[in-house]
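hey can u check if this looks right to u? its 113 residues, i copy pasted from the old doc so theres a chance i mangled smth
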Amino acid sequence: MDARVKRFRDAVARYGAGGVGRRYPTELRALAVVIAQERREEPLVRVAADLGVSAVSLQRWLEQGEPVGFRPVEIESGPAEAPVRGLALITPRGYRVEGLEVGVLVSLLRVLE
């Protein structure tokens, strides 16, 4: 089981969240959204089952666009003899795309959301 899925399930058990009439705290919903977005190649029903939530709830959280917070970003300077052309994008999964113009970068980010 993925460590974040386990962390989610443990937190649900601690908070007593879920079930009829019980709301999940915002930070748990945000974590579930991040996990679901990263596993978007899998059926939503499977991801929801792994998390221990209903597929309807998980779908609603995804549609609401719960805030997931900021991610740490590192800015590195390149070698002095190789000037940087355009921008570089490094995704949370570690993919790196270099040489992007601002408009292309914005378009790519919209597709990846």
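The first strand starts at residue 87 and ends at 90.
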